[in-house]
Fold this protein.
Amino acid sequence: MMRLLRHATLGLLLVLSSIVVSAQVATAVPASSGPTSNVAIFYVACEKQGVVNFTGQMQAGYDVYYQLFSGAGGSGTALSGVRRAAVSGAYAFSEVVTYTGGTVAAGAVGSVSVSIARETDPSRSIYSTTVNDLQDGCASPQNPVGASTDLGAAGTTATTPVNTTPILSPFGGELNPGYVPVSPDTVVIGARDFSDPRQKTPGLIFAECNDYPIANPGLIYDTDRVVVFWSWFAKTPEQVQQHIDNAIYEVGYFGSNPFLRPVVRTPIQQRGRNWWVFYYVDLGFVRPGTYPVAYGVRWENPITDGYDDYGPGTANERIDSNCDFTVEPNPSGITPSYTFP
């Protein structure tokens, strides 16, 4: 089972960089602090196969994922499924992958989309990029040849998301049911506009939405009741309680100001295979404007959720994320009694 919702992207502690220098050259730049993972990419697009070469440093719990495409920048036809290269520590990995469903003609440009994500869930990416190559002949692998795992097709084009696993709502069901984001690139940090969809759960805001395209708040009117929520899950109810007893949340708007509203915590509940707790803040009717929400959590003592370890002395000492949503005046001309800010 793919795990979309770990708990947050590990953006601040596990930020990594990989700057593409040219079509077939990439330079890995490690993070300035904290645990680091990085990847240097050398890709060769051949007529009927692609040759991927990866080197870098990988911390425990993360792997390299990649997918081949017939066009530049991860566009065109998907020539492979999403593949996971299981690497760790200092690594050097190469693989020759035969295309499925197409070719790259001489003089055309093919590409590889590469990300670093949790080894249990390719959607939990902490870095992604694409590398292009002009098809002017093939080449041999540069590193020891390994075998990646084919996770299946992510669609016929690069605009199909890798994963659209639903985000659970604290009120039952799912956030934005039926919504399929065009791609992870549809995440917008900053003001949104009227091109955003009108979601089926308008006003229900996931505090980490900027890291999950499926959580796009969409078009919200000032007549929608706005509720900001976040969640945690684990394999057992005891592990969820361990989180509750040790978690220190820092959630607010405009970067640092806490919500002047009580936070409601739900009872621990089983949803699917895992046990969950949800937290939410009811903001009521919000004045038109753009609202940046900051989300952070740390722990007083080390904990586990049955999948990863969190807290002091672990690789996940703190989790940070954010969400930006915009409230527009309702089209009916109604003047609500605003309760926020």
